[in-house]
Amino acid sequence: MSAEPHAASGLAETLAHVVVLAPLLGALICGLFNRFIGEKVAMFVATALLFVAAACAATIFIGHWNHSLHLPAKPIRLATWIDVGAFKSTWSIRLDAISAVMMIVVTGVSSLVHLYSWGYMAEDPHKPRFFAYLSLFTFAMLSLVTAADFMQLFFGWEGVGLASYLLIGFWYHKRSANDAQIKAFVVNRVGDFGFALGIMAVFFVFGSIEFKQVFDQIPQKADMMLAWGVFHLPAIEIIAFLLFIGAMGKSAQFFLHTWLPDAMEGPTPVSALIHAATMVTAGVVLVCLCSPIYEAAPATAGFITVIGAVTALFAATVGIAQNDIKRVIAYSTCSQLGFMFFAAGIGAYQAAMFHLFTHAFFKALLFLGAGSVIHGMHHEQDMRKMGDVARHMKITFVIMLIGTLAITGVGIPHTPFGFAGFFSKDAILETTFAAGMTGNTAAQLAFWMALIAATLTSFYSWRLAFMTFHGTPKWKADADHGHDHDHGAGHETSDSAHAHAQPAVAHVGEVAHDAAGSHDDHAHHAWHGPHESPLVMLIPLIILAFGAVFAGSIFYDAFVGHYAKEFWGNAIYTAPDNNVLKDKYSVPTWVFYAPLVVMLIGLAAALYFYLFNEGLGKKIADRKGLAHAFLENKWYFDELYEAVFVKGARALGDLFWKIGDGKLIDGLGPNGIAAALNFGSKKAVKIQSGYVYHYAFLMLIAAVALGAFILYRGA
Amino acid sequence: MSMNQTMTAELFFQQVPYILPEITLAAGALIIVLIGAFMGDRGSRLVTWLCVAVMLAAGAMAVLHMPPEQVVVFSGSYAADGFSAYAKLIIALTASSALLLSVDFLADKKLDKPEFPVLAMLATLGMFIMVSAHDLIALYVGVEMQSLALYVLAAYARDDAKSSEAGLKYFVLGALSSGLLLYGCSLVYGFTGSVKFDVISAHVAASRDIGVIFGLVFILCGLAFKMSAAPFHMWTPDVYEGSPTVSTAFFASAPKVAAAVLFARVCFEAFGPAQKDWLGIVVIMALLSMVIGALFALQQTNIKRLLAYSSIANMGYALVAIACGPEFGPKALLVFVSIYAVTSVGLFGVVLSLRTADGERVETIAGLSGLSRSNPLLAAALTMLLFSVMGIPPLAGFFGKWEIILATSSVGLLPLAIALILASVVSAFYYLRIIKTVWFDEPVATMVPVGTATALTLTGATFVLAALTLLIGLVGSAATIAGAGFS
Asked: Is residue A593 domain-shared with residue A656, that is, in the same domain?
């Protein structure tokens, strides 16, 4: 009895090594050696290694789920990274329920995205670079989720940030892509600063950065106060708050969300992998992983609840007024992340992880489906220019329909029938209501905001579906397509290298031409309307569709149901008085049906505006009402940040540069002294007249002066 | 009486080995003059080679016959010690290098007569006497022997108005300085009753006689002129610019070593006990030299004038070393001046190697533009030499200044060290400007290396010199041994 789990544990360790290191190997081979082994081979190696990793991750996950595989209690130690005094960090692989879930999510979506990219990026001249970045990202994300201490977590955190930066700006000849990548990087800096301070605070308070050692000490440190200026604040709250700042940046929560919609400048597979399914959920993972900290920090948990709920509602309101298909889904992602956060905030970490899990399937599905539409529409992203695409792209249509049903949460309560999003979202709403019943005001607020957000989610998701796939076609099957783009505010460029055909980015020059050379011809011969995507793109969609349909019902019990305690084990800690997961069964009956009802309301509204009265939405938009403008311009966050931070920073920089450095330091320092010396020497050289008697006179004067000096000194 | 004579003769022959270098130079000069007279102008190249050989031999002898302790010969008028032996070697090396550099230039200007090398050799003899002088007579003989030869070298291109002017200026002002020097000598002799350094030293130690101190002031003024230290530097830019470049190359190296070493010996040996009197004068001269050398050079467009101010500034640094006194000064001084002299010859070697396609000699800084393209090797050598003279590590020039700063910190003269560093910073500007011109400015004329066969010699010599600047370790240890004589 004892021998078998031991052997299985050895198997888990071996598999874990493969999961983490295979993507790194793929990235190195594909990135460094693609010139030697050829483009296709390099891409194949990267993709194949990812599928191997995914298979191993699936084995670990399924094994843990059905108890056939025992996960080792201690992290697998690979090598020492930092060992300075008490500050120790080890490269390790932590295997527990959280990392098992994240490994299958990351490698699963990543491998499918790798495969999908064979079709989507077929015409790009830099494919190996793209695949190398994707694999590098996957490795960084895996090292993040398998970290056993905060330092490796931070390494992965920054690694995914780097990969995200590189991939958003993959089409580096596009100005908008460069701006977006810098924006993503800078906004994440704000979060990462908080995160780094959090890690420092952890080390300061606990004397260690290893999760186990830190979490074990929490009971002893619960009453410790830190002095910060005149304030004396609980140490745990400070740590929790600082770490959450990092999570806010990475997961695009309210105030630090502005980079995510702009990140859609990257290729669509990147949006699906990084900016929907995996990287942006790192913040949720962090909060769940640090559940022992957040359970001991009620104030910060309340803050998380509020921020999460506000983000969920805010992003949903913005989503209803966007016209770029990818931006709608981006705001949807932002909103769903808000759901996860307030779930974690009220203590339902399991529900947050469950939603993360199901969301990965249906959001990747939606993005890749949107990518398929964009591909079929020749890189058109404006939904106002689509319509009636369903007739031409039947498989894509069905798949997008599944994605929409999943995100809007269609299902029948109390039965195992429902799409993935139904189970996870309902679990969140029910636990939130249950938490509200215990007197958690933030949870009560979050519940109602979430209900409104769910209504809006349903509305914008169906709006997207109807505008894209139904109604009258707004595209013309002719050669001019793609040249007369009239882009709405805020998204002046389309998705791909094809962008060079637009006047707005016509200046990008040779690189763009080179990059899109083949596509150029493609766009110019007569265009016969949308076409279905190749099989290599459809297969990943179909696989994800299965997940979007069944992931919820299959794993409900393990993640948030009756077996949750067993499934999560020590990975998630809940305080003895935290019973939200159980209490969710005892909420009033209307709460179970509320999500379904609000979904139907949203659907009805979308049907009314975009199917039965096609053009009504456009009329509202054309009136340019205050409310519409407010939503279309994303609550003017970009404008506000531009005015305050960007302009402010620039003004401050100008002040230091022009006045401080230029006038004061340079003016009085190097330049001033140089000018004075130059002036002085110009005057002085006049003494050198060339006349012998001047020289002789000076010599005699000097001799006399020196003699006088000696006399004076001697006296 | 006859026994007395025998003893004197015996004593004389015992002392001869200590002046063998000088005898070699003097005898060599006489023989070579005869060779030159017989062969005429066509013998000038052979004469040059012979002079170089004799000078190198004399330098080697000075080192080989170096006594372990200072030996004062000829009734206390002549000192043989490590200090002078080291200086003589450096003088011989730099003087012969300058001679080698002259061959092609003189031929080019149709000035290739045997007189030039012979005069240079006689000046070298004067320098040898200067660095070994141990009484006021030997001092004066050495200084004048050197100076008279140098006056002629300055005016050597006698058909050239500028050269004649330079020679005349140098002579007139040199005569004035000799007057100051002699006046000082007579004051010292009058008040101490002796010309011998050890007697003077004993007298100064016993009592502070204002007459002797006045004499000291005048002697130092005269020597400062030879060193071209401010405020007795006025002749330097004009003479450097007007003289034929080969003469300037000669002025800028060996005579500076000789004058600095003599200056140090007078301060340390003859007036050692009066340190607080000469210290003030040395400090004033050092500060003025550094300031003037740095400031005036900023405005120069002519390379030779620029190098003149550069040498004034560098003599200011040498004076800082002298100000550090007999214990720490000698080593720093020897390291510094030897590196400076070698670098200086190297710099002139580069200037002498250049001629535009239409036969013009390069004399302006702007004329160096584009050198990196027409002659990258020379450009690299020039850059390295300039970085060295700026004092950029790991080149030799850095260690020269390093030794001086080390010495100042040992004796607590930090303000002087700070002044030295500031002056170096300012002067770095004009050295860097040359480097910028060489590497980054558009070429104004195509540069052709001089001659075909001799171009090799020149470039080779320049490179050897440039490489020498890297042999600092050797220089340092030699100077340590040589400078130990005073402490």
From this structure: no
Average pLDDT, chain B: 88
Write the single-letter amino acid at A342. F
pLDDT of residue B467: 60
Distance from CA of A679 to the nearest CA of B (A): 10
Per-residue pLDDT at A494: 42
pLDDT at B33 over 80: yes
Mean pLDDT of B309-322: 96
Q: Are residues A696 and A583 part of one domain? A: no
**A655 and A586 share one domain:** no
Q: What is the pLDDT of residue A481?
A: 44
pTM over 0.90: no
Instruction: State the Cα–Cα distance between residues B117 and B29, nearest whole angstrom.
Output: 9
Chain A residues bordering chain B (beta-carbon distance below 8 Å): 674, 677-678, 680-682, 684-685, 688, 690, 692, 694-696, 698-700, 702-703, 706-707, 709-711, 713-714
Q: What is the number of other CB atoms lying within 10 angstroms of the CB of residue B289? A: 30
pLDDT beneath 70, residues of chain A: 1-9, 477-528, 715
Cβ distance A694 to B234 less than 8 Å, yes or no, reads yes
Looking at the structure, tell me whether residues A678 and A599 fall in a common domain: no
Residues 6+ apart with CB under 8 A from B140: B178, B181, B182, B185
The answer as to whether A521 is a domain residue is no
Angstrom distance (rounded) from CA A269 to CA A121: 9
Task: Label residue B449 by pLDDT band (50, 70, 90).
Answer: low
CB atoms within 10 A of CB A477: 11
Q: Do B296 and A690 touch (CB under 8 A)?
A: no
CA–CA distance, B127 with B138 (Å, rounded to integer): 11
A691 and A543: one domain? no
Residue of A nearest to B239 (CA): A690
Distance from CA of B8 to the nearest CA of A (A): 42
Residue B169 to residue A695, Cβ atoms within 8 A:
yes
d(CA B230, CA B236): 10
Q: Number of folded domains in chain A? A: 2
d(CA B455, CA B98) in angstroms, rounded, equals 15
Would the CB atoms of A685 and B296 count as touching at under 8 Å?
Answer: yes
Find the domain containing A672 and state its range: 640-714
CA angle A648, A649, A653 (to 5 degrees): 120
Residues composing chain B? 487
ipTM reported for the complex, 2 dp: 0.89
The nearest alpha carbon in chain A to B423 belongs to A677
The verdict on A575 and A664 lying in the same domain is: no
Whole-angstrom Cα distance, residue A675 to residue B2?
76
Please tell me whether residues A60 and A186 are part of one structural domain: yes
Residue A522 within a domain: no
Write down which residue in A579, A594, A623 finishes a domain.
A623
Q: What is the pLDDT of residues B361-370, one digit of tens each?
A: 788 888 888 8
CB-based contact A694 B232, cutoff 8 Å: no
Residue A706 lies in a domain: yes
Task: Compare B125 and A3 and report the one with higher pLDDT.
Answer: B125
CB nearest to B214's CB, from A678, A699, A707: A707
Q: Check residue A221 and give its pLDDT.
A: 87
Inside any domain, residue A89: yes
Half-sphere exposure of A465 (CA within 13 A, CB side): 24
Instruction: Determine the pLDDT at residue B141.
Output: 96
Q: What is the pLDDT of residue A527?
A: 63
Angle at A233 (CA atoms; ends A228, A235), nearest 5 degrees: 100
Of the three residues A623, A653, A670, the one that is the final residue of a domain is A623
- Give the amino acid at A512: A
- Provide the sign of the torsion angle of the four alpha carbons A196, A349, A162, A54, taken in this order: positive
Select from B213, B218, B295 the Cβ nearest to the Cβ of A684: B295
My answer on whether A648 and A612 are in the same domain is no
- Binary contact (A714, B277; C-beta < 8 A): yes
